[in-house]
Structures are given as C-alpha cells and as structure tokens.
Amino acid sequence: MRPFRIAKANARRLPALGAAFFLALGLFAPQAHAAPAPTPQGKPTAPTAKPAAPHAIPVPKSPDTPRDARPLASDARAKANAPTAGSTVGTNAKAPRQLAANACDVSAFTGNSGAALVQQVKAAGLDCVNTLFTLTGDNARAAFNEAQMVSVANALRDASAAYPGDDSTSAGQLVLFLRAGYYVQWNNKDVVGPYGTALQTAVRGALDGFFAAPHSKDVTEANGATLAEAVTLIDSAQENARYTGVVKRLLDGYSSAWTGSMAAAVANTETVIERGFDLPDFVGALQADPSFATSMAGFVTRNASQLTGSDPVTSIGIQIGNLVAKDALRAQGRPIVKDLVNRYPLVGNTGPLTMNLLWFAENKDSGNCSYYGTCDVPAKLVPLVLTVDHTCNANLRIRAQDMTAQQLADTCTSLVNQDAYFHKVVKDGGPVANDNNTSLEVVVFDDYYNYSLYAWEMYKIAVDNGGMYEEGDPAKAGNQARFIAHEASWLRPQFQIWNLNHEYTHYLDGRYDFYGDFDAGMTTPTIWWVEGLAEYISYSYRGVHYDDAVAQAGKGTYALSTLFDSTYANADSTRIYNWGYLAVRYMLQSHPQDVDALLAKYRVGDWNGARTLLKSTIGTAYDADFAAWLKQCAADNCGSLPASQAPLCTAADSRQFDKNCRRDGAAATTGNYSYSFLYLPAGVQQLTITTSGGTGNADLYYNGGAWATTGSYQAKSTNSGNGETLTIANPPSGWVYFSLYGQQGFGGVTVTTTYN
User: Fold this and answer.
1) What gap in Å lies between CA 522 and CA 169, rounded to an integer?
2) From its phi and psi, is residue 688 left (phi > 0), alpha (psi between -120 and 50) or beta?
3) CATH level 2 (architecture), domain 522-645
4) pLDDT higher at 183 or 95
C-alpha cells in the first residue's frame, strides 16, 4: 500500500499489515523408516543490532470501518470546523429534521422580522426550531441574515433578566434559533451574508445576561436543557475566550449527581475548550488564568470512576493535552499531563485518556519523554495490549489483542498455504541477495479504534489507514519484518484480518522479487506490479471474484503502456489496485516470458533495465491486445488462474507425505539429501511428485521400495534450479521413497505429492 507520513496539522493517526516465513522441515522419522539424517536447519540468528527505522507500506482503510464513539487526538476529522448542528439535549438530541408540511411553517421565520420574528420563534416548539438547521438558499438568507439574528439575540438578552430556570419564557427557542443561524451562515456565507460587530455585541449581551441569571446555575433538568444549548452557543458565536469562567464553573461544580441535561451541559464544554485552542484570545485567556488548567485536571481526577473511553470525562480530559501543544500554555500543561499519564493505566477504561494525552506529549512536546517518564512506554505496551502470543512456526509469529485458538490456527494456515501459491506464480529462485527477512511478525489489534489508539506509539507508524507492512532494511542483521493489522470488526461474527493476504504478498514480493528495501524498489515506477501482484495473489489465492476490477475492464480506461507509469503520486486507488490487478493478470497469462525477464531485473536491483524493458522493449506493442483482452474480461472471461496449491501434510513425521499434500522448507547442504516417503494404497494409477521455490539446486530422485539416492533410484528429475517433476505410472502399493539431493545446497523448497 502507498507509503506516506501524515504531514498536515492535527493528523495524528497511524497503521499496517504484512507477513512472511519459511517452514522448517522436521527431521525425525519413525524407527521403522530410519534414514540418514540431514543436518538440521539452524535457528534464526538473534538480533545483534537495533533494527533500522522501517519503510512502511500502509493498507487502505475500508469504507465500512465504523466510527467509534471514543475520541482520538490523532483524528483530525473528529474536529469539525462548523458550528455544531442540531439540538444536543433532551427530546431534541438528534440531527435536525427536514421541515414537515403543516408541522413547521418556514414562512413564520422568513416572512417576519423584529418583534414579529421574536414572537414566532417563542411560539414555535423546540422541534420546529430544530428543523431550521436545514435551511438553504433564499430561506436561509431571509431567516438568518444579520438583522434577524440581532433581533433574536436582543430578545434573549431581555428574557434572561427574568430567566426562571426553565423554558416557560421560551429562552430555549431563542438560544436554539441563534445556534441554527450560526450553523446555516457558516455553511452558506455567500447566501446569508456576513455577520459583523452588530451581532457580536448583541449575542454577547444575550449570553452575558443568560449566564448571569441566578437560575441559570440551577442543577435541574429543566434548566439543564437550555443551559446545554447556551454552552454550545458560546462556540457557535466563537466567544470561547469570553466565557472561560462559565466553563470553569461547570467543570468545578460537576459531580456524578449531575445527570441528563445537566450532564449534557458539562459535556458540551468539550467543544468550547477544544475549538477554543484554535482561537488566540482563548489561549490568551487561559494564559492569564492558570486556574482553568487546574479546573480541567481536577474535573478528571474527581470523576475518574466514570472513565470508560466514551464518556465526557475522557473527552474533556483529552483536551488537557492541548495545553502542551501551545507554547504559551506548555508550562501549565506539562505537570498535569505528566501526572495523568502516570496516574492511570495505559489499557482498559483509562487507556483512551492516557494514550491520547501521551500523543500530545510525544507529538506536541517531543523529545521530553524523560520528563514525562514515558520513554519505556512502547516496550511496556506490547505485552499489555497484545496479550495473545502465538507461534505458527519458527518463522511466523502472531501477536494479537484478542484471537481464539481457531482464529489463530486459520490465520497460520492461510499464510502458510499462500507461500507456495506465490512461488508458483512468480517462479523465483529463492530470496534476493542480502535479504535477511526470514521471519515475520503479524500484529493484530481487535479493531480499527484500538489500532489507532496504540499502534502509533508501539511501532511509531502512521495509523490513518487500514494497517501497515514494515519491511525495514532487509539487509540489516536483526531486522524484523512486521505486518501491523486489525480485525475487520464490521464483518463480525465472521472473523477476518483486514487485507491479510494482500499484505502478505508484499512481504513475499519484497523478499523474492525486489532487491533492497522498499525505497529502492520505488526508484522507477513499479507500482503496477507491486500493488497489482498483491491484488492478484490475494484474490486468486482466496478464490474470490474481483468484481471491481472486472467492472473496470469494461470501461477500457487505460492502455497497458500507461499503467506501466503508475505511481502513488499520479494514480488514484482505482488505477493502482483495480487496474494494477488487470495489468499483472494480463502479463502473467499472455506474456509470462516478459514477466520472467522483468523479475530477473527487479531481483538484482536493475531498476533502469526493468524500466527500459517495459517502456522501450515492450512499449506500446501489447496495448491493442490488452484492450481486446479487457473486453473479454469484462464479459467475465479473463482467463484461467493458477490452481490452488495442495494443503500442508499433516503426518507427525515431517518427512511423511500423503495423497495431495505438500511440505514447505525442504533443505540440505551440497552433496546431502532431504529424505521423504509416503504410503500408497493398492490401485494407484499415477503418482506425481513436484518441487518448487527456494534457493540452490535440488535434484529429485524416486525409488520404489528403498531409500532413493543418486546411486539407487528408479526415476529422477535433474533440471537446473528447483522446478522438478516426476510422474510414476502404476507405482507399487505400500511405502515408496523419494529424496532431494543437494546438487547445490538448497533451502525453502516446496515438495508436493498427488496420486490417483
């Protein structure tokens, strides 16, 4: 997936997914079948140096990824710029409805002004006023031009003088009308017209009067309904700085006894605080009054029992982090953030608060982890968050937040079986030179929210995506390839790791097809292959019909020669993924010899040579044929896909085979053997043994009733490399034997047996 780093302000989320491994071949046979034992494969060498900073390939987010109620400081999209829409309390706590015929006559607000408008607003129900948030065009201008807003604001000022603590004088309708006006004007400035000092003066008078009214301080449901809307109006009018005292009063007074609309009034202060930090006057007000910061801190510590992650205490507490984001307030914020991050656990109900505050400390006050006492947090988080630690084999490990034994087993099987399928497609000769990524760690968070909350800190990656594969520097000793992923929670109860097989292909492609690290492979345009192959393997291996790509084929948008030029910068997701798949599938099926030649150059880092092959040697020669193939593909006749590889053999002895099964990772040094055997029932007409993949040069020997060697065999296949096949007609029943001989030391070879 496209590598990038979040650069824009407030973009704070981070992600990943990828995988790779080899299966070690077991070396112990039953006593009855004892054979000369090959030298055991060595275990991976322990890291001798700190891994280099990884080069990461992010996964696209699914459009079905649900939004979580819990906030993320790293989510720039969670912070809207427009005034809040619709009522936020009571029966009106819902999105504004469209105006209903005979239920709310818009002309009552657009056809009146001055005292007549005020009377109509007061007479309307709150539900009716709530629908005004949807006004546009001429109605928006007639209802909410500045003169109309000034009339209603002055009416609220007058009503506030005798505010009784409930809506009997229609103060709630007046507040909600003003909120609707600011919202509509923000989104339709060219129609409604500008708001100036006249409205500012009027709304300040209205809010001053309301918050000064004795009954505006009543802790009652009746008062809370209007109070909550008035708090939101502070932000709608961008008077955040003027009313810091009101916000502080609510934070200091709040307790668990405040429920319903009173709790909503306090919750609404979060918007006033968060958006206030974007206003210089608000920052200046907090700088002049340090007690505001201590009120925020006290609000959190007094009400810590309410922390769940999706509660107002968490949301408001997170805003404390903005203190360290502002130079003028950093001295106030540092000790508070330090205390809270170390006071509460990093996981569980308090995790959203502590991790979000930690985000501010690390991203807005970077280089001070010693002060905050957080330098060791990444290492501490791994066992706290990833409580599942499962080893598939010596080269594949899964660290997960929450996976069942069956889910772990299925994931291991999916990755292990994909390995042989990949090698069958690309026909590699083993890892490229200097690639030491012999093991893969797959990290699986429970859902996208947890991925976003923790992965940025644990792995120092961007998380505004659907996962990320970190290749790192494959030539560096101790480098750990890692695929950081999350479950596709929107598919539950079905279990799926988002983009698992696509990202695993990136690991395999990087190890067997691309010399050097990811950046080296981006020297020339290679994205048509990198992403196209990942899509091709993922869909064909899983046997899933690629509906989107077939639909694109019918459009005939791109020539093949154009797709060879695709980059992450010049192409959208449709061209990168759908059309990358189509280009790779066409080339693999129609011009495999050109693919072989291309990969030969990629595997040695001859990027310019590969580019010449694509743009000069091939050039536009295949464009017409590709266009014809696209038409066939659009009719769902795209050609044959490679057959799925046989499943792994299940016998306890790793040298024992059975009908239609395979083993990966066969190895032996030069002049030595990897011995195998299987039991054939009576009546077998044909036995086929094939080898593929891996490194070195392994020759295949078969013997009917005894161990197969170069000096004792009935059939052999001795091609260069590891692509060997033997077909034995009418083999005897009972135990038969075959072996791989190391003409040159070999490893990572896949061996498959089938019979009928």
Assistant:
1) 68
2) beta
3) Orthogonal Bundle (1.10)
4) 183
